[in-house]
Amino acid sequence: MKVYYDQDANLDILKGKNIAVMGYGSQGHAHALNLKDSGMDVGVGLRKSSSRWKEAEEAGLKVFTVDEAANWADVIMILLPDQNQKEVYESQIKPFLSEGKTLAFAHGFNIHYKQIVPPENIDVIMIAPKGPGHLVRRTFQEGSGTPCLIAIHQDFSGQARDKALTWAKGIGGTRAGVIETTFKDETETDLFGEQAVLCGGSAELIKAGFETLVEAGYPAELAYFECMHELKLIVDLYYEGGLTRMNYSVSDTAEYGGMTRGTRVINSDTKKVMKEILSEIQSGKFAEEWIEENKNGQPTLNKLRKENQEHPIEKIGAKLRSMMSWLKKN
Ligand code: NDP
Ligand code: MG
Ligand code: MG
């Protein structure tokens, strides 16, 4: 598989074009600011009521309402929450999609599950950073970058791939490596990753480990350091050098205990469930459920969010982290 780096992309392709970033949240602020720092003409599209309007202006960006930005722009990147994109697209973006414009996404959900069906006479591309927006910004400012996936849904101009690569370079992605995929593969692997491993899997692993120690009578402080805090240090080793580096860095006791016991925690039953989760993504069942959840005002999300916020690990964690001077207080 080809991996693209800085020398494979040319910033000139988007220079002088009007670039609109819709939304100024996690991804939105990162794309807008990185592209601006890369010499692009960037405008941000927000709703009038947005508390982030002033912040974007103070950062030196042009700020418009979403429909004004869509009208002004040659390239439109939608960085709104996935569940709000369809409605905003229909009412404030679609009317301004004249021939030859480019519509971009950072995740394929709405295109892949046909919530948004763009006109045929425009380019439709994706640039999906493989990391949270705040790291897309921070790594860029530090001179490094966040790996990105790019994908082409429609190539009306014949330049769609070059545009996607240029965008990826402008936000720092080609410093770390960019690979081309499809909207389908990005959407399905992204949903699977966040559900089974990154967000769902890791959070439940942490909670189960913490609860096991606390229920056995160990202090919550000790359980927190062991099961949550230390996980970051372990993940840093994976990030730097994979499983081998992690196992090299921990003690032989940890390595032996981990390899003989880890497979009892995550076993063939776990993998069977992972396969079920993946099929629900592939069949569209998860997408249907999530769209329905949003129509109903997110009752399940709100209930589970509250439960998680009230978990004992959150109380003890907040107390311990407040003493860690290097953690920003916001
Ligand atoms: P956020 O939730 O951080 O985006 C919030 C922004 O969208 C705010 O500026 C908010 O404005 C604006 N917004 C929300 N609803 C509307 C509306 N109806 N009209 C106008 N503006 C609105 O989104 P993310 O950055 O998390 O996600 C954006 C996209 O990036 C998604 O497709 C996501 O899948 C993808 N992605 C996200 C990653 C991440 O790290 N979070 C990683 C990779 C991809 P206001 O200030 O008014 O509330
Ligand atoms: Mg995701
Ligand atoms: Mg130990």
Automatic annotation (TrEMBL):
Reaction(s) the record says it catalyses: (2R)-2,3-dihydroxy-3-methylbutanoate + NADP(+) = (2S)-2-acetolactate + NADPH + H(+); (2R,3R)-2,3-dihydroxy-3-methylpentanoate + NADP(+) = (S)-2-ethyl-2-hydroxy-3-oxobutanoate + NADPH + H(+)
Pfam families: KARI_C (PF01450), KARI_N (PF07991)
KARI C-terminal knotted domain sequence ranges: 182-327
Catalytic residues in the record: H107
Domain KARI N-terminal Rossmann, chain residue ranges per copy: 1-181
InterPro entries: 6-PGluconate_DH-like_C_sf (IPR008927), KARI (IPR013023), KARI_C (IPR000506), KARI_N (IPR013116), KARI_prok (IPR014359), NAD(P)-bd_dom_sf (IPR036291)
Residues at which Mg(2+) 2 binds: D190, E226, E230
Cofactor detail note: Binds 2 magnesium ions per subunit.
Binding site residues for substrate: S251
EC number: 1.1.1.86
GO cellular component, one term: cytosol
Residues reported to bind Mg(2+) 1: D190, E194
Keyword Ligase: no
Cofactor: Mg(2+)
Swiss-Prot/TrEMBL GO biological process terms: isoleucine biosynthetic process; L-valine biosynthetic process
GO MF term set: isomerase activity; ketol-acid reductoisomerase activity; magnesium ion binding; NADP binding
Keywords attached to this entry: Amino-acid biosynthesis, Branched-chain amino acid biosynthesis, Isomerase, Magnesium, Metal-binding, NADP, Oxidoreductase
NCBIfam families hit by this protein: ilvC, PRK05479.1, PRK13403.1
Sequence similarity: Belongs to the ketol-acid reductoisomerase family.
Task of the protein: Involved in the biosynthesis of branched-chain amino acids (BCAA). Catalyzes an alkyl-migration followed by a ketol-acid reduction of (S)-2-acetolactate (S2AL) to yield (R)-2,3-dihydroxy-isovalerate. In the isomerase reaction, S2AL is rearranged via a Mg-dependent methyl migration to produce 3-hydroxy-3-methyl-2-ketobutyrate (HMKB). In the reductase reaction, this 2-ketoacid undergoes a metal-dependent reduction by NADPH to yield (R)-2,3-dihydroxy-isovalerate.
PANTHER family registered for this protein in UniProt: KETOL-ACID REDUCTOISOMERASE, MITOCHONDRIAL
UniProt name for this protein: Ketol-acid reductoisomerase (NADP(+))
Species: Melioribacter roseus (strain DSM 23840 / JCM 17771 / VKM B-2668 / P3M-2)
Record gene name: ilvC
